[in-house]
Automatic annotation (TrEMBL):
It comes from Volvox reticuliferus. This is V-type proton ATPase subunit F. V-ATPase is a heteromultimeric enzyme made up of two complexes: the ATP-hydrolytic V1 complex and the proton translocation V0 complex. Subunit of the V1 complex of vacuolar(H+)-ATPase (V-ATPase), a multisubunit enzyme composed of a peripheral complex (V1) that hydrolyzes ATP and a membrane integral complex (V0) that translocates protons. V-ATPase is responsible for acidifying and maintaining the pH of intracellular compartments. Belongs to the V-ATPase F subunit family. One of its GO terms (cellular component) is proton-transporting V-type ATPase, V1 domain.
Length: 123
């Protein structure tokens, strides 16, 4: 039985982004950035000094927030927390892997594409 998911709110839904500085800057320039009253951001800049634990915590926090509809994560960052992404099974927020300027998109690593192929019966 399908569960109804309410994705509407008075203020609208947000995107969350976990990626390198250049990718985050592009999304911020496009107006995606948000800082709430508790000083919580909807993005995490990941660089070589960012620990895997920090990335995991940010992903889990974003996926638990009710105001986030989509989590965009660069494929390079996603590869560091693949086990956490694989365990995420809620439809909202959706998790979409995106390329970064340093790493091209690799469809064989995309967790969403793997799930679609599994459901559709393509191996």
């Amino acid at each position: 039985m399908a569960k109804n998911v309410n994705i509407t709110s008075a203020d609208g839904m947000l995107l969350a982004v976990l990626a390198d500085e250049d990718t985050i800057t592009g999304f911020l320039l496009a107006g995606v950035g948000n800082v709430d009253l508790r000083k919580k951001k909807n993005y995490l800049v990941v660089d070589s000094k960012t620990s895997v634990r920090t990335i995991e915590q940010a992903f889990k926090e974003f996926s638990a927030r009710e105001d986030i509809a989509v989590i965009l994560i660069s494929q390079q960052v996603a590869s560091q927390i693949r086990h956490v992404i694989a365990a995420h099974n809620k439809p909202i927020p959706s998790v979409l892997e995106i390329p970064s300027k340093d790493c091209p998109y690799d469809p064989s690593q995309d967790s969403l594409l793997k799930r679609v192929k599994l459901i559709a019966g393509f191996n």
